[in-house]
Amino acid sequence: MFRHISKLTASKLKFSSVNDRDTAYTNPRMIESWIKETQIGFDALLNDQFILAEDIFLDKQDQFDCKTSKSPFHAFGYAFLTYTKAMLALERKEIEKTAECISKVEGFLKQKLNKNKTRNSMIKIAMNKGNLPTSCSMPSDITELVQDRLRHHLELLQANVVLMSATLQFLLNKWTDTIKAGYDLYRSFRIYEHLFESMVGVKLSEYETSISLNQQKVATFRHSDGLLSDTLCYGAFFGIGLFHLFFSLLPTKVAKILNNLGFQPSRTIAVHLLNQSCKNETMYASLSSLVLLTFYTNVSAYIQPQINRFFSFQDATCALEFLKHKHPNGRIWQLIEGQLKTQTNCLDQSLMLFNQAKRPVGDQVIPSLMYDQETTPIRSQSVIEFNQFRVFVIYEIGWVHIYTGDYAKATETFFWLESMCNWSRLFYHYISTCCMIADGLYDKAILEIKQIRELFQQKRKTSSRLSSHEHYAESKVQSWLDVSESQAISLRETLEHHIINPVWELVYLWNGTRHLQHKVLVDIKRRFQTCHPKDPVLCLVMGVIYRDIHQDIELAMECLNLALLVEAHWTFPYAMYEIAVTYCTQQQKRSDIQIIVSDWIQCIERHYQQHSQDTEWEARMQIKCQLLLESYCLEKSI
C-alpha cells in the first residue's frame, strides 16, 4: 500500500513541478498575449520599423536557450525577421547565417513540442487518477483544449520555419540542398494539411474540390475559441496557399520529385486560401495580402492583366490600400504602387513613386555593407538600407525609361544596376548595350559587346553558373557576331542595318509591349512598314501592339500569322501563343475558346519537343502556357 501511495505522491509532485515551471504554457491569456505581441512585431516590420520589430521579438527570447519561460511565437517572429533580411540582402554569407539561425529556432520549437506532449500525457494521467494539482485553476476539459491548441500552434510555427528553411536551401543552389529542400517542403505541407483538417473538420482535398463547385465556399471551424483558433486556422490557410504558389515556381527537377509524391500545385487554390486568410485580424492577414500582391506583380510578367483570372488588378489595388492604411510608413508599398501605376501606363507617377521608395530616410547615409569598421552588425532601420530592395526599385526605374524611349537614362540605370547586383550582372550589362544601340551609339555599343564577350569567357573559366537571363544575353550577342562574320560586314553595319532594335525584343519577352509610349511606337511602326521581307520579331511585336494598344484584332491576327511563316525562329511558338491569347479576348463561347487555346498550346509543346535545344520553354514559355490554361479553366476569378 505504501508503495502505491509513494508512486501517487511522486507523480503528483512531478506534475506540480512541471506545472510550476511552465504555467505560461497552460495559461490561454499568456499565449494570447504572446500572439498579440508577435503580431505587433510583424506590423512594425511591415511598417518599415525594423529596430522596433527586432526589439519586440527579442524581448521574450534570448538565443533560443530553451528556457521554459521563452515564447515560441517571438522565436518564430525573430526567425522571420532574419529571413526577411537575408532575402533582402541575397548574399551567400547572410543566407548561410540565417539558415543556421532558423535551424536553431526549429530545434527550439521541437523541444517545446516534446515538452507539450509530455505535459499533456501527465495531465491525462493526473486527471484519470483524480490528482490534478490545485494550482490548475481551470476545468480539466479547458486545460486539455488549451494544451491541444498550443501543440497545434507549435506545429504551425514549426511548419512555417521549415518552409523558410527550404526556400533558403534553394538559394544555396546545391543539388543536395535542393533535394533536402524538396523533402522539407513535403514535411511542411503535411503539417499544414493536418492542421487544416483538424480545425475545419474536412479533408483538404475535399475542400479544394468544393472550391471548384462553389466559389463562395468559406471555412467553418470545428472549434472556435477566439484568437487562438483564428490564428491557427488562418495560419494553416496562409501556409497551404503559400506552399501552392511556391510549388508552382519550383525548378522542374524539384517539381517532378514532389509530383511523384502526389502534389499538384493549384494557383486557384492558393489565391482562394490566401484571400480567406486576408479577411481576418490575425498576424497572418497582412502577410497573406503581401504574398498576393507579390504574386500579382510577378505573374504580370507572364500573362496579360485582362486575361489574368487568378487575382485581378482591382483585387491588387484593394489589397495595397489595406496594407497602406494598416502600415502607412512601409516603403515597399511605394514600390508595389509604382508597379501598379506602370500597369495602367501612368509612367510619370510610377517613376515618382520609385524615386520616393529609394530615397534615404531623412539625412541617413545608406551603407554599402551592414557592418562598421569593427565588423559589429549595424541594426537596420529601414528596408531601404538593404541592397536587394534598392535593386528592385532601380530595375523598375530602368524599364520605365525604356518604355518612354529615354535610352540614355536607361543605359545609365542598368549600368548602375550591374554594379549593385550579385547575379545576372552580365544581363544588365547587355540591356545597357541594347539601349546604346537603340540610341544610335553604335561605336560605344561595339566596345561593350567586346567586353561582354570577354566577361562571359572569364565567367565560364571560373565555372560560375550563368543565369537564364545571362544565357539569353550571351546567345543574342553571339548571333550579332555571327551575322557580321557570315555576311563579311562590319559589326557596326550589322547593328545599324541588319538587326531589329534589340530593345523591342527585350520589351516583348519581358511582357512590357503594352507599356510602350508614343515615341517608341512610332519608331516600331516606321521600321515595320519599311522592312521587306517582314522580320518575324517585328511581326510579333506589331501583332501585340495592334491587339493590346490599338484594339485592332484583325490587324493583330494578320501580323501574328506573318510571324508563323518563319518556323525556324524563336518567334514561331510565341506567335502561336499570342494567337491563343488573342482568341481569349474575343466574345465567343467559352467552351470554344478553351478548345482553341488547348490546341494551340499543344502545338507549342510539340514544337519545343522537336527543338529541345531551345531554352525558351523552361525560361518563359512553360509558365506562360500554364497560366493561360489554368486561368481559362476558371469561370470567373475567385
UniProtKB/TrEMBL annotation:
Transmembrane segments: none annotated. Pfam families: Iml2-TPR_39. It comes from the Eukaryota. This is Tetratricopeptide repeat protein 39C. It comes from Choanephora cucurbitarum. The gene is Ttc39c.
